[in-house]
Amino acid sequence: MPEEITRILVNLLFCSVETPIRNLNVVINALQNNIKLADEKSHILEDLNLLPKVFLVATVDYISNTGNINLFSIVNAFCSEKANILFPLHPITENYRRHYGLWDKL
């Protein structure tokens, strides 16, 4: 749960738009209600050959991050990290990543 606390703090302190802050309680409730089920049923770590707690998860699907040069800066920052980064993409973000020539960087 420390990762979730960190995510909440980052969203509250550094979020670039208000909507995610308003929706944060929904995310917290969904997490609390489904964490045990996810632990029991998920095989994502095995499927992606990841060790628990030895990777970062990054989502940048806020429109302020995807439709402009911010995505270029974000991907460059990811590339400078030494950690494995799990970067799930919304189709719109994926299109921008291709548009900016960032597909092969990560």
Walk me through the structure.
This protein has a two-stranded parallel sheet with strand order 1-2. It has 2 domains: 1-42, no CATH class; 44-106, no CATH class. The chain contains 6 helices and 2 strands, in the order H-H-H-E-H-H-E-H. The mean pLDDT is 77. It is 60% helix and 6% strand. By secondary structure, the protein is mostly helical.
Overall shape: it is globular
Number of strands: 2
H/E element string?
Answer: HHHEHHEH
The biggest beta sheet is recorded as: 2 strands, parallel
Q: Assign a percent range to the helix content.
A: 55-70%
Estimate the strand proportion.
5-15%
The number of helical elements comes to 6
The strand order across the widest sheet is 1-2
- Uncertain regions: pLDDT < 50 for 5+ in a row? none
Q: What is the rounded Rg?
A: 15 Å
Overall structural class, as computed from helix and strand content, comes to mainly alpha
Average the pLDDT over all residues and give the rounded result: 77
| Distance, first to last CA | 27 Å
Domain tally: 2
